[in-house]
Amino acid sequence: MQQNAATRFAQKILSVIEHVGLAVITVATVIAGYIEVNVMLDAGTVTLGDLLLMFLYLEILAMVGLYYQSGKLPVRFPIYIAIVALARYMVLDMKSMDEWRLLGVAGGIFLLALAVLAIRYGHARYPYHEGE
Questions:
Q1: How many helical (H) and strand (E) elements, i.e. helices and strands, does the chain have?
Q2: Rounded to whole angstroms, how far apart are CA atoms 57 and 118?
Q3: 7, 14, 48, 89: which is deepest, by most CB within 10 A?
Q4: What is the model's pLDDT at position 7?
Q5: Cβ contact 77:63 at 8 Å
Q6: What 3-state class would DSSP assign to 87?
Q7: Which residues, other chains included, contact 39 with Cβ-Cβ below 8 Å and sequence gap of 6+?
Q8: pLDDT tens digits for 2-51?
Q9: Within a 10 A sphere around the Cβ of 57, how many other Cβ atoms?
């Protein structure tokens, strides 16, 4: 199937926008990581919340890197990031949470973990074939 010139032009424009967006995400993540390291150095201590936040930044960078390598973004990566973000929220605000909110956040983490398990099972049981 032959693409016309307008379609090719639109695809090039979208590709440029996509790469600019990925570059902005990368630079913003690196800056945020740098700021967080400075906060830890100024405080003279590292908390579990700090480590989880740094892990979130690394996951975002890994997600961008994987996208650049393969041109695809596995849906599992954003789910992993969401799990770590909820865990960080739970760790930082656990003392001020009531029981129902704590159970809700834990339930969210559990559901996301089940989603990852289902996706991984689906990929193992029903693998993709090139060209599909």
A1: 4, 0
A2: 25
A3: 89
A4: 87
A5: yes
A6: helix
A7: 50
A8: 678 888 899 999 989 999 999 999 999 999 999 999 999 999 999 888 99
A9: 19
Q: What is the mean pLDDT of residues 111-130?
A: 88
* Average pLDDT of span 92-108: 91
- CA atoms of 30 and 61, how far apart (whole Å): 8
Q: Is the dihedral of CA 33, 34, 39, 42 positive or negative?
A: positive
CB-based contacts of 49, cutoff 8 Å, min separation 6: 88, 91, 92
Burial annotation 96-131 (CB, 10 A radius, 16+ → b, else e): eeeeeeeeebeeebeebeeeeeeeeeeeeeeeeeee
- Count CB atoms within 10 A of the CB of residue 10: 12
pTM of the model: 0.74
Q: Is the dihedral of CA 24, 35, 86, 51 positive or negative?
A: positive
For the record, the structure tokens of 114 come out as 């089940």
CA within 13 Å, CB half, 58: 8
Instruction: Name the residue with tokens 């700021």.
Output: 35
